[in-house]
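Q: Could you fold this chain for me?
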Amino acid sequence: MNIKTNVLKVLVAIFVILAFVACKSSRNSDLNTNTSFQTGWKSSDESTIDFQAYEGILSDAPVGMLPIEGGVFTIGQVDEFITAPRNNERRTLTVSSFFMDKYEVSNIAWREYIGWNEAVFGHTKPELLKSLLPDTTVWRDEMAYNEPFVEYYFRHPAYSFYPVVGVSWEQAMAYSQWRTDRVNEQILVLKKFIEKPNYKLLRANAYFTKEEIEKYVDPSKYTLIPVERPAASGGSAEMYQVPYEWIKDQFVFNTEKYLKSTAYNPSTGAAERKRFDQGRKLNVADGILLVGYRLPTEAEWEYAAFAPKAGSDGLSKEGKIYPWSGYHPRDISSRNKGKMLANFVRGRGDMMGVAGNHNDGYVLTAPVDAYEPNDFGLYNMAGNVNEWVLDVYRETTFEEMTEYNAFRGNVYSSIKKDDDGNPILNDYGQLDIEWKKEDDKRNYRDGDAGSLFDTDYPLSTVGFTPEQMEKVKYDPSDVLAPRINDSTRVYKGGSWNDRIYWLNPTTRRYMQQNQSSSTIGFRCAMSILGKE
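A: Sure. Below is the predicted structure, expressed as structure tokens.
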């Protein structure tokens, strides 16, 4: 009797589960990508309009990134420091889920960036490379011997996985765009939507006869530039180098340019493209291309640093001072008791501790994977180098911020177009942008009136026209003139050269977006679409 009863209970349980699954399936079956819930027409039907309907989100984190689950947290001051600026009042807000780099961008990553641009533009437009190089002179100190770091820190393999420094906010933004385009280009190549560029044409000594180069370059569209090269049989032969404009058009993949262009280069033998119609260009609705790498907003960065994850009780820790789980700069576990948890300055002149018993182990920067990660798995969110964030700096930002995805710095831009409506490319082959004055929201509800003035004045006004003098808002010798403007950006996190106060993620400092320092690096973020 007991056996029959148990069997019956099991059968009833199975029936209930199957009924629940069937019920759940039936509730969701009317929302699918096979048949329109609004019109009843089938999708991907070549006998009709062949409307392509897909569902889903990016299942894997982009290369080098970790998913950061969004949520509510309190931004702003945790502890009190009498001499610190009062620019971080506490405020509760919510941040959407996003991706963030596991590590700070390293020297070897930036060298790859330089290497790609050297390969593409090095022979035809070498002057473009100057603006991409980090400023290695940031290591110089009038009262210190740091010349070896000026010479070797960026280039030498000993520092390959150390954080890149000497890069401005503007350079970090340009790198983020380049990284987006390279990753999306690889996605399209691997999925057979485009051909891999023939980089052999751009390598050293890539010079061709007129007959050879005309196999690749249409002389009716591009001007062929002759280059005198020694002939193998003696004397000289007129050779040609691939034109810069052709390189910019053919070798610089740009995500936005690809999406907005009517022309495309489908690859042959597209066996992997089973999901897509092989006769069309990929578009946003296919959901394959990445949203794009960028700098994190200040709210995202601070949230990611604190990593306010809920424990088994459903609650997160309140009052954390640093990104790690504890409240101390040293490890208090029995296994690693006393070890420093970040790279910073303990006191005057103490950069690394004594020989034989170093505290943090590094006199300057440390490798990007040094020390333990925080609860989100992110490394060096305190110490090592400060990090650029996306926001424009205002002292009163925390008083005015929105409660959801807070950010100051919006400029609603559009793509520049020529008289024929074609997108205009900048020198690096990327789409050029512009915006109207009313679409610049950097000063929206700005409580600091001084920041509305242009303080980017020249040091000398000798020879200025009356029109130029009208634009000079302040006397350069006026020490009370405001130094905050629309190009002033926030950086956070503390560095190898900072005292422990700055390792608190709530602290914030600023610098002009075209300036750089030996203590500032960056990491990238990316928005997550759909699922939170």
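A (continued): The longest helix spans residues 2-28.
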